[in-house]
């Protein structure tokens, strides 16, 4: 903005330059003293910052994966405190609220009587944040579901939450998945299972409770009269822990779903679980995928399925049961009248196993979903399944993806579908068609 010219002995200022010089001397100093307006309104004022309108008009607030930090958590907390907030489900998972943000949220929830569900997983709350939520739970009279997974709360955080739940009478669903909880934390939650009269769904998967922690949980289940769903997969539980769960299943009369996937349960553990289920009349869903039960373990469950059982869904995927295990399960399906869903993907089942299972499908009248993906059925196995599809009148979903099926096998299945009128979903992805 300055313009100057050299005249005679020096640099002479133009009128424009003189104006800007005076502006810098007189005006700029006053700007440094100007008060910047607050961008965040005071607590209790439902103004125009981002969350207010959402919380005032929507019952479901999804704010997940926004990279929100502790400052944003304070804004959210201020909105939650206001009487105009109508939100009942709050999802702030996958942000960066940290311990400070977690405390803001927990304190605000103490004063909110409308929120019933909170998802705050993956926010680095750590022990301090878990303790803040424990304080909230000990006072809350409305929260029914809390998902605090992947927050590194450890045993200390688990113990704080468990202590709060001993007096809480409203929370029915809790997830502490992936929180580095070990046996000590599991022991604390066992006390909750033993004494809490509200919790019906509990997700403890993805931790490291081991057999010692599994024993605590299983023993508590023997006396529990309300928990309906327990997820405890990926916890380094072996045959010793499986034995404890087998013992609890003998007497437990409320658990409907048990997920033990991704552990280290072998043939012995499978046998103990199957024996426990012989006397159980309530468990309908059992997940044992990603274990090591092998052929012998598959035979144990096959023997169970030939007896009267409440099981309607069984997941034995990724257990290396092979053709022999498939044969045993097929024989059981010929007699079983309860199983509706069977998952046996990635089990090294080949054409022989497929032939046995196809024979079972010809006579079974209850199975509606079968997952055989990731095996090696080939064209021969596909042709066997095509014959079963012509005769079966109940199967709705069939997954044959990743089975090295080529043109002739696919053509056989396609031809069978002309006669089949019930199959709704068929997955043949990953096949080598037109090779």
Task: Please characterize this protein's 3D structure.
The structure is a single chain. With 435 residues, the chain is an alpha/beta fold. 43% of the residues lie in helices and 11% in strands. The chain is built from 16 helices and 16 strands. The chain has helices at residues 15-26, 28-31, 50-57, 70-81, 98-110, 126-137, 154-165, 183-195, 210-221, 239-251, 267-278, 294-305, 322-333, 351-363, 378-391, 407-417; strands at residues 4-7, 10-13, 60-62, 89-91, 117-119, 145-147, 173-175, 201-203, 229-231, 257-259, 285-287, 313-315, 341-343, 369-371, 397-399, 425-427. A 14-stranded parallel beta sheet has the order 3-4-5-6-7-8-9-10-11-12-13-14-15-16, with no helix packed on it. It has a two-stranded antiparallel ribbon with strand order 1-2. Helix 14 (351-363) runs parallel beside helix 15 and helix 15 packs parallel to helix 16 (407-417). It is globular. It starts with a strand and ends in an 8-residue tail after the last strand.
Question: Which descriptors would you attach to this protein?
Answer:
435 residues; alpha/beta; 14-stranded parallel beta sheet; two-stranded antiparallel sheet; 16 strands; 11% strand; globular
The helix/strand class is: alpha/beta
Q: Shape from CA axes?
A: globular
Strand sequence of the main sheet, in spatial order? Answer: 3-4-5-6-7-8-9-10-11-12-13-14-15-16
Radius of gyration: 31 Å
Helix content: 40-55%
Count of separate DSSP helical elements: 16
Strand content: 5-15%
Given as residue ranges, the uncertain stretches (5+ residues, pLDDT < 50) are 1-11, 32-48
Largest sheet: 14 strands, parallel
Number of strands: 16
Q: Span from first to last CA?
A: 72 Å
Output mean pLDDT. 90
């Amino acid at each position: 903005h300055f313009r100057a010219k050299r005249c005679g002995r020096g640099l002479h200022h133009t009128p424009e330059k003189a104006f800007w010089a005076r502006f810098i001397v007189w005006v700029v100093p006053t700007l440094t003293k100007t008060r910047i307006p607050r961008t965040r309104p005071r607590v209790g004022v439902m103004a125009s910052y981002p969350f207010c309108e959402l919380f005032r008009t929507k019952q479901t607030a999804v704010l997940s994966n926004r990279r929100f930090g502790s400052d944003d958590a304070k804004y959210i907390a201020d909105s939650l405190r206001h009487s105009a907030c109508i939100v009942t489900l709050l999802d702030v998972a996958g942000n960066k609220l940290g311990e400070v943000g977690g405390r803001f949220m927990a304190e605000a929830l103490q004063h909110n009587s409308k929120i019933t569900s909170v998802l705050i997983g993956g926010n680095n709350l750590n022990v301090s944040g878990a303790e803040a939520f424990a304080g909230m739970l000990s006072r809350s009279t409305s929260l029914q579901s809390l998902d605090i997974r992947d927050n590194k709360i450890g045993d200390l955080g688990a113990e704080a939450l468990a202590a709060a739940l001993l007096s809480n009478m409203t929370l029915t669903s809790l997830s502490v998945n992936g929180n580095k909880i070990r046996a000590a934390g599991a022991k604390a939650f066992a006390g909750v299972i033993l004494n809490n009269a509200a919790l019906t769904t509990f997700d403890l998967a993805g931790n490291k409770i081991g057999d010692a922690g599994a024993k605590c949980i299983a023993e508590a289940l023997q006396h529990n009269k309300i928990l309906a769903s327990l997820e405890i997969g990926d916890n380094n539980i072996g045959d010793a822990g499986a034995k404890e769960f087998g013992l609890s299943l003998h007497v437990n009369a409320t658990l409907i779903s048990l997920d033990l996937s991704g552990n280290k349960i072998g043939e012995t553990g499978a046998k103990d679980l199957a024996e426990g289920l012989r006397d159980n009349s309530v468990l309908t869903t059992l997940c044992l995928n990603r274990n090591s039960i092998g052929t012998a373990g598959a035979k144990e469950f096959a023997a169970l399925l030939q007896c009267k059982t409440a099981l309607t869904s069984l997941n034995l995927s990724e257990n290396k049961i092979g053709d022999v295990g498939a044969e045993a399960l097929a024989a059981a399906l010929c007699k079983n009248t309860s199983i509706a869903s069977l998952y046996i993907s990635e089990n090294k089942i080949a054409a022989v196993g497929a032939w046995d299972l196809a024979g079972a499908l010809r006579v079974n009248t209850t199975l509606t979903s079968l997952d055989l993906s990731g095996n090696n059925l080939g064209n021969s196995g596909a042709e066997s399944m095509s014959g079963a599809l012509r005769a079966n009148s109940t199967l709705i979903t069939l997954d044959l993806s990743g089975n090295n099926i080529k043109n002739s096998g696919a053509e056989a299945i396609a031809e069978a579908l002309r006669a089949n009128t019930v199959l709704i979903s068929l997955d043949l992805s990953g096949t080598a068609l037109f090779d």
